[in-house]
Model the fold of this input.
Amino acid sequence: MTAMQTHDDHRRQHKPLALVNARLIDPATGLDAFGGLLIASGVIADLGMHITEGTVEGAEFLDCGGRTVAPGLIDMMVFAGEPGHEHRETLATASRAAAAGGVTTILCMPNTDPVIDDVALVDFILRRARDTALVNVHPMAAMTRDLKGEEMAEIGLLQEAGAVAFTNAKTSVANARLMRHVLAYAKDFGALVVHHLEDPSLAQDGVMNEGEVATRLGLRGIPTAAETIMLERDIRLVELTGGRYHAGQISCRASLNIIRAAKARGLPVTCGVSINHLTLNENDIGSYRTFFKMKPPLRAEADRRAMIEGLANGDIDVIVSAHDPRGAEGKRRPFAEANDGAVGLETLLGAALRLYHNGEITLHRLLDAMSSRPAELLGLGGGRLAKGAPADLVLIDVELPWTVEPEHLCSKSKNTPFDGARLEGRALVTFVAGRPVYHYG
Amino acid sequence: MSIAVEAPLSFPHRHLLGIEGLSHAEIEGLLDLSEEAAKLGRQINKKRDDLRGRTLINLFFEASTRTQSSFELAGKRLGADLMNMSIPTSSIKKGETLIDTAVTLNAMRPDLLVVRHYAAGAVELLSQKVDCSVINAGDGSHEHPTQALLDALTIRRHKNRIQGLIVAICGDILHSRVARSNIILLNTLGARVRVIAPSTLLGAGIDRLGVEVYTSMREGLADADVVMMLRLQRERMVSSLIPSQREYFHFFGLDYDKLGRAKPDALIMHPGPMNRGVEIDSNVADDARSVIREQVEMGVAVRMAVLQALARNLPNQ
Done:
């Protein structure tokens, strides 16, 4: 596995590149056809049956061997370490991990040090990403100053500086009045508010899902009500303000029901789910395996089933990796004292394809939830195969078996819950603005 | 000699508690009377005797410089005996209720009572407990009728009409009594009223008050004849209605760029006191199109007219 540093390659790359003999899947339009795709000047110049090795003059060719070409994945929840946590991750390492996972755009979280709550920090991320990152990086900014949940951040100025959404990272804004003001104010700017769902008083001291497993293990539980109470409150506030609201991650059936009802009422509400909550459950914690400690906590199997059901029918809009790199020092501790979080950029696609191979979800919906739908929510140009769209693409071998080996992960931190897992399907080549940033093998 | 003789006016009200309830004709009548008072204010001898022998009390439960001095000057020019009472320091701390204060004052037999209070509805409540005429000089976030009248007078003097003008009221609509009185008055006189503010400073149901609602200055100021700025109070940031002063100025402060969307001869107004660099650029405030100082002058004239109009309805006239 190598990630290619290609600033020089890019300058040398004058010729258009044709991906031929491919299965083209565009979740945005429902396209699923064999053919080719022509990349020129960083955008998709053309695509269709007529793009073959014989038809495009002066282009370089990549024979895809019938494998899938899809829009590069867009991951709405990535902790990228900079500034302040460079020992866990940097924009460079996170972007290499992203490229290796077929992810061409990441949204980085503002829970950095200092917090991304000022235009200068947004500018720092954009410049740092331009200079060091292989994939597109968009900062999400803090919606309250210093993420303290006390005062509204400068949403308008931050958006002008380049913040694509606003979030309180891994904490909920407990003050309903402040949340109301944030939603109302953000609405004036058309800004999306992405909220973490956890009532702090109910979740206090909890370290895993509340229930039989937690009781057996002697660990303090976090009830699903900590999530649903916050979600219900938020939806009432959306109703009051009309603000655009995205529940960053939901984890249980009760939340899914709330989202479904809100959508049925026509409210501007969407939600995400992490790859972990689609593929793992609380039993995976086994004997206190801290790599399975995360927020929201892994829930019961019935909740995981509900997440798949919600994803399949579109009630759940997007899948995120919830990439949260943690060093060994934070994970090699008693479960209750260990850090939350798991890396996920490189395993996102492979783990998601499990659901496809199990016949639980179509390839289209799966890819939609990781590319077209997030692009739509965020107003980004990528996430589709269309003439003129940025050539952010991934060549996927849907069937290829591989084993997750933490020591080979590009991320600086190796805290993957898929340690040793055998996955089926992965990114072979990843293109960002038409240039290859990753080749498998 | 009385100005009222020159400008006949039907104003059958004992109090002026708000613009709400005033007719088109009554408002125009007050403005005509104010016009006369404005002329008087520019003469060397400004003294009249309409209120000679009458007692006027300025009762202010909330600090004010310009409104209080404006009423004081208006009363003195009309020959009233005048007393200023500022309450924040005295009775409230001693626990006296508003009604007790009213009853006490009433016993002193004033003829006219000018009242400002921090609570909406307080002036009306007080008016029910006294025998004199009461003028609302601002009650909480409810009404400030003499401000709306002086604004209308200033506009009329420059545009010769109110009917059909596009008036954009910008800023903290939610807490502004000036905005409420102006919305009612301008609508009564047939203007097209717009309000422009971030959603957090608009107030629920504002669209039902007969205004066009905008959250963008660039859109809301398009083709405006009058741009009326409101004062932003610092505590709005503490309560997180807006993020910061610099963000507020960037999006809602009146600068030349945003003003460029309004008509070239748009009037620039502000009820004062201004926060230069917060809701209005300092140069814009001093621009040739700014009538902010004239508003202060018209304030005295309007208050004279209101005192005269009410004095004519006092007993023993």
Confidence is low (pLDDT under 50) at residues 1-8 of chain A. DSSP finds 15 helices and 19 strands in chain A. Chain A touches chain B at residues 150-157, 177-178, 181-182, 184-185, 187-188, 241 (CB under 8 Å). The radius of gyration of chain A is 21 Å.
